[in-house]
Amino acid sequence: MVVVPGVMADAASWRPVVDALALPNPVVVLNRRGRAPSGPLGDGYSLRTEIDDLHHVLDALGGEVEMFDWSYGGLIALEAAVQRRDLRSVVAYEPVSSPFGVHALEPLRAAEGDLDRAVEIVNRDVSGFSAEYVAALRESPVRPVLRPLAHPLAADLAALNAHEPAFDRYRDLDVLVTLLLGKLNEGAEPYGTAFEAFERALPQAQAPEVLAKHLAAAIRP
């Protein structure tokens, strides 16, 4: 299984999830560019950069991979999936695409170097959390974890909004696809409304209960 995280996440932040999975096969979590110890985003960074990185990992693993992908990672995974024929399944949890968080781009660029401010912007102006929630984050032990993850935020968001997804090719995906949306985000900005574009592009996507049956079959001895 390959996990592709979104923004404000890295391989280390997904470790508790991986540790809780009782799977007989390896679980690989991409530590995307801009997240230590991976290298910087690099010149000319775009969503194409992320797609090529994912292809490189999938090629190295030799195919027959299940993918679980979150937010920005969901878009990266689906864009890569339309170019492959060796995947077993793709689970996209609250995937996003342009336009998403466009209003936060300039504030994030203006906050370059001020990681505390960047954490506040992404939580308040993109994810829509309350001021009380953000204030609690400042005093939380998770704050030192979030600060470095905020460093590539502006570039991630710019790349997401500059990319035009291959929605017209999603219907041709010859692989089990499952779309997941949190209950509280149904119909709500920004994740629920972003999710609707993927629902329209993937009418063949399976429901979560089908995913559960599929994974149970996949790990059965």
Automatic annotation (TrEMBL):
Q: What Gene3D superfamilies does the annotation carry?
A: alpha/beta hydrolase
**InterPro entries documented for this protein:** AB_hydrolase_1, AB_hydrolase_fold
Indicate the transmembrane segments per the record: none
Protein name (record): Hydrolase
Name the source's superkingdom: Bacteria
Residues in AB hydrolase-1 domain copies:
2-208
Keywords (alphabetical) are:
Hydrolase
Specify the signal sequence span. Answer: none
Return the Pfam families for the record: Abhydrolase_6 (PF12697)
Under Gene Ontology molecular function, one entry of this record is: hydrolase activity
